[in-house]
Amino acid sequence: MIGVISDTHGLLRPEALEALQGAELVLHAGDIGPSDIIEQLRHIAPVHVVRGNCDHGPWAQTLAETTVVSLGGHDVYMIHDRGRLDLNATAAGFAAVIYGHSHRPDIENVDGVLYLNPGSAGPARFSLPVSVAHLHVEADGLRAEIVELDV
Q: What gap in Å lies between CA 74 and CA 142, rounded to an integer?
């Protein structure tokens, strides 16, 4: 299982850490908050991150705005804001696009590409749930599930 998290905004809840336990890898789709959030996630598994629009300062400048992670032969494109996606994920051969920004959890399949927003695991916003996601690598592709946190 791959743990997917986004929009912590400096708040890494114990419930989020618990939901990510057992992950082989953690993907953080930006708006991290202080860099110590990344260090805390590294206690669970290796971490891949992208910079969000609220990630500022010298530590954040070292983070890429996009990255590609290969999961069992499936290439996954990570970006914070799906609205800034400037490529055709299907034509580029990506199996999935992982993103955040909206705080709204979402799983969508478009032209054979899985689009996954784990929602916000940080401060509650409006009436949106606090959530993370689990991404499963299977023989025929990737499967995702949203995990709402009881906070």
A: 8
Give the pLDDT confidence of 85-134 residue by residue, as tens digits.
999 999 999 999 999 999 999 999 999 999 999 999 999 888 899 999 99
Alpha helices in 21-127 (DSSP H): 36-42, 58-61
Structure tokens at 86: 């400037």
Residues 39/90, Cβ–Cβ less than 8 Å:
no
User: What are the tokens at 48?
Assistant: 């891949």
d(C-alpha 38, C-alpha 97), whole Å: 20
pTM (global) more than 0.90: yes
Provide the residue type at 41 as one letter: L
The pLDDT assigned to 104 comes to 96
Total length of the chain: 151
Superfamily covering domain 2-148: Metallo-dependent phosphatases (3.60.21.10)
Strands 131-138 and 66-71: unpaired
Domain ranges of the chain: 2-148
